[in-house]
Design brief:
Elements: H1 2-9, H2 16-29, H3 39-57
Helix pairs in contact: 2-3
Length: about 60
Amino acid sequence: ARLDVAFAAGDLRRTPPLDAMLADLMVALEQNEGQKLGGKSAEAARFILRAISRELDNA
């Protein structure tokens, strides 16, 4: 939700790499209701978040 606000306010600009990373993150975070995030999904989420952080640092 905070990213949507930043995009709407013009504080962040959508780029193809950022959109792809956010889409990958949504897949990694997708869990059945009541299921905890763990294993490969958790590791994938951490990896993607680090990539997003680097992308934002380079912006």
